[in-house]
Amino acid sequence: MDITQQQYMIALAETGSITKAAGRLGVSQPAISNWLKGIEKQLDTQLIIRSKRGLTLTPAGEIYLEASRRMVETRDRVYHDIGRLTGREAEVVTIAGTPNGGADLFASIYHHLSSELPSLELRFIEGYNRTSIDMVRQGTVDIALGTLAGDPSAYGDDIEYIATNSQELILAVPHGYPTAYDASGIKSTDPLPRADMSKLTGLPFIMPDGEISYHNALISWFLKTGYVPNAVFQSASTRSIYNMVKNGNGIGVMQRRFFSPLDRISPFSLDPPIRVFSAILYKKGRSMSPEFKSLLDKLCKLLKR
Fold first, then answer.
1. Which of 143, 149, 191, 197 would be 276's cystine partner, CB 3.0–4.6 Å?
2. Helix 29-43 crosses helix 18-25 at what angle (to 10 degrees)?
3. Any idea which architecture 1-86 has in CATH?
4. What distance in Å separates the CA atoms of residue 50 and residue 305, rounded to the nearest whole number?
5. By the 8 A CB rule, do 125 and 95 touch?
6. pLDDT in tens, 220-276
7. Helix (H, G, I), strand (E, B) or coil at 16
8. Is-same-fold flag (1-86; 165-276)?
């Protein structure tokens, strides 16, 4: 049952953007734009109004959206009922991820994956990075959405991974601390000044604990540079570390994606730099159904967008 057009409409309504809808579905923006023009011409009425604030559905658009959702639900029910009739139970795939980033990511892609792969029953378990990887190793979960840093072989030869994207680790210094500067104009692609750790000696340091992927890489960095952190707080949550820094409790290291120019924080590049990369991890040698392979492929496309 081809419900491509219905998925386009649902994605447009839920994201409020052609760009975001295309990213969610893994298709080009022109594909969705051309479909929208074609369906509006076919129906001789406007379904969506575009403005600077995003997309707004017209009354006709609301009717089309409701019908699209019913068609997707019908497709899922048909596949489920036929599966029961033929004795094929839905394959359960359990995915682990962090309580913050992993859970947010799963929530954003769950509907799309469920619609695209109705023969799979997707479940999510919260676990910090190293715990999630250990659950894959132990067979408790099928997939972990995690991050890796340093030498991937350190995670063991029983784990396979697909790298999706990488990020620089930054040193974040709150307003009022030595070397702090006005970073309100910093853009995501701008180069950052190098951190002068000699001017930050003895300052409170917000430390990642062993659950965080870059913990060991950061410890090695301290040994190489000779910097001795004055650890006053330790957390398995990168978001908690950033919030501690943002509130002026100390300096800390985290992925650059956490930095916002709206916060009174000064970002610096580390010297030498440390990078981490997001990855889809699963147990080496596990048997893979065609549906599981398709899930890995779709996850990879969604996470690389």
1. 149
2. 110
3. Orthogonal Bundle (1.10)
4. 23
5. yes
6. 999 999 999 999 999 988 889 999 999 999 999 999 989 999 999 999 999 999 999
7. coil
8. no
